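Notebook B, p. 112. Complex prediction, attempt 2.
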Amino acid sequence: MSRLHPAVGVTAVLTLGFLYLPMLAVAIFSLNQTRYGMSWGGFTWKWYQSLFNPALSPDPKLTETIQAAFVTTMVLAVVSTVIATVLGTLLAIALERYPWTRRARVFLDNLLYLPVVTPDIILAAALVVAFSVLRQVSSLFELGLPAMIIGHVTFQIAFVALVVQSRLKSLGADLDEAARDLYASYGYFVRRVLLPLLAPGIVAGAMLAFTLSLDDFVISFFTAGPDSQTLPLIIYGSVRRGVTPQIHALSTLIFLATVILVLLSERLTRRSA
Amino acid sequence: MNRVLVWYGELTTPGALSRRGLLFLLPAALWLMAFLVLPSLALVAVAFAERGTYGEIVWTFSLENLKRLLGYGLFGWSPDNLLILGRSVWVAFVTSLIAALLAYPLAFFIASRPPRTRYLWLTLVIIPFWTNLVIRTYAWQLLLSPELPFARVAAALGLAEPGTALYPGSFAVYVGMVSAFLPFMVLPLYSSVERIDSSLIEAAKDLYASRARVFFQAILPQTLPGLTVGIILTFIPAMGMFVIPDLLGGAKYLLVGNLIQQQFGASRDWPFAAAISLGLMALTLVALRVYRRSGKDVDLV
């Protein structure tokens, strides 16, 4: 593995460059004075400032929309992650620590892998159809934030469960048995032994679910209502209407937030590994 | 049910055990039944319904939508829809191929770094993987716009009209797709490359194998598990991709994802949308079947 042909290294670095080039272009144009067109009008921070202060924005309405969308995106990500983490963790424990018949196991495994392999546009289409039926029962299923949360949880559960399940597998059963041998009640065992041991897996699963929610466009696009726009939806909409440097600034900030999130989760998972 | 058993060090009865198991299982299982399984079944049902005059669903059994998907429309047979389905498979195939070609050098390069810096290089691959796809895609629009070097070079070489953007079109779709799915290919491939037994490569070289032979007989078989996972993680989502063809392909290069979205949007023809989704699902299942056969013992996560 020591001697690589120099062409391999060059191709590799160029490929990485190819991955980063688009973001680099967006970051550069977010610092451009010129509001329309692609000519360079000099350096400025004003598009970033205008994101935080509508008064500084040439388009105060856009700033307010972006700020509202930020809140929606966060509420959506946090609420769906909390629900999905609880449900996914319970599911992982059930799958890993209880004796299901072969048949039930095959069914549950399929149930778990289905959302992972299904193209998201199919899940989105299915939800839209189902919600239109369920809407006659409850207004909870009007397109909007609650519907989006349901959609996000549905694809997050499987990912949380898979991460927690792999942690449960690597933990093994020894500590379970030791705890019970020492007369821990089941509740005590779950609280004082199982959950603390699982914590790194649960945190990793939750972070995965959170990032998936922030990343999602298709499910939100199909289930969003008029008052519940997320940041990706705003960016998508502005691409149709013509992108302004303010959108570039927003995208750059989202990218930087992603970088921080990735570095943070790398650290967490490496420490626990 | 008075039989007693020991389960993970606990003295219990089968009844008590399965009752508690269900307690853990039911919340998620019910959620997935309600919002995954039943909606999917509803989607299948709608595919066999009819569209009413105002876009509502009329529950009469009909095969009309599936026929339309196969091209039998009001005005006789046309290959348009099949062409879009076929194109989606083709784009997914080419994307996987190019991504695999680019992933090999990158995976080998990362594996050749000293262990301390390997994490850093891997993180560099993971970051774009987690960056929002809408952002990465519109960034390509920006990059391919007429004023920037790519379009200028293309124009100077006579590959494009001067002063026009390199999107929308097939080229932009491939560029967007490959850059979006490359990390999906690199990460599993790297985990195979990292574990490669290099003595086999050296042996092949010692025995004067050509470069091609070293790759196909010493490297490829050892990295096949990672490559298979990479291909499945690229191929299936690429087939159903909506954002990239929408922003970079335009009306000129529709894929099946756009076709589905159009039926929900402008056309308001849910039964037909459901029928197309069934078509996409069928393609997905075929791809998975091929994968199961070739990569049986490969971990997805």
